Amino acid sequence: ILIVHSQFLEIGGAEKSILGLYEELKKRFECELLYEFWREHEEKDYFLRSKVWKVVSLIYRFPKMLFSKGVRKKILENDVIIISITGNLVTAPLNWACLILSKVYKKKTIVYIHEPLLVFWSLTKIENIILSPLRYFDVFLFKLFKPNIIISNSDFSKEIVMKNYKVNNVKVIYPLFHL
């Protein structure tokens, strides 16, 4: 089992949940954790402030993740892929790449939604307009490469997933292992 959680820059609820899941699965199955520690750019502070730069960076990083030999190798080595979605745009390129690759290589795919990417909290109207193409791309990928199972942390997340992604024939469940 491969668990994909893009960033561990800070440990919050999603990270604690994923680490708890990893520890539990590791007791019973061969399990590994894949994450991208993204600190390679000097302009990281600018990246976090500027929504335009965020979009440019995501467009630049997505193909790098999709065609990364390391990511492909990890997907090929595992039968089940669990992709953790936290709603943070920084994590999107790795999540999208893993969703596509897991379906291309015919792996069982589970998406664990802590907070849907579609929810852009506290953004201005201009920022929402700038980022709207990412919403459509996210929904498009999710529908095209739909997971086998979706794990949702809350009724709110489940409602957002069912309303926006409109993915038929996918079971949405609650985690029994959430911390």
Q: Mean of residue pLDDT?
A: 80
Q: Number of helix segments?
A: 7
Structural category = alpha/beta
Query: How much helix is in the residues?
Result: 40-55%
Largest sheet: 6 strands, parallel
Detail the poorly predicted runs: none
Determine Rg (CA atoms, Å): 16 Å
Order of helices and strands: EHEHHHEHEHEHE
Largest beta sheet: strand ordering: 2-1-3-4-5-6
- Strand tally is 6
- Portion of residues in beta strands equals 5-15%
Q: Report the span from N to C terminus.
A: 20 Å
Globally, the shape reads globular
Short account of what is shown:
51% of the residues lie in helices and 15% in strands.
Task: Sum up the structure in keywords.
179 residues, alpha/beta, 6-stranded parallel sheet, 51% helix
Task: Walk me through what this model shows.
The protein has 179 residues and is α/β, with parallel strands linked by helices. Helices cover 51% and strands 15% of the residues. The chain contains seven helices and six strands; from the N terminus they run βαβαααβαβαβαβ. The protein has helices at 13-28, 44-49, 51-66, 69-77, 92-104, 125-144, 155-165; strands at residues 2-5, 32-34, 80-85, 108-113, 149-152, 171-173. A six-stranded parallel sheet has the order 2-1-3-4-5-6, with helices on both faces. Helix 4 packs across helix 5. The protein is globular and about 50 Å long. The chain starts with a strand and ends in a 6-residue tail after the last strand. The mean pLDDT is 80.
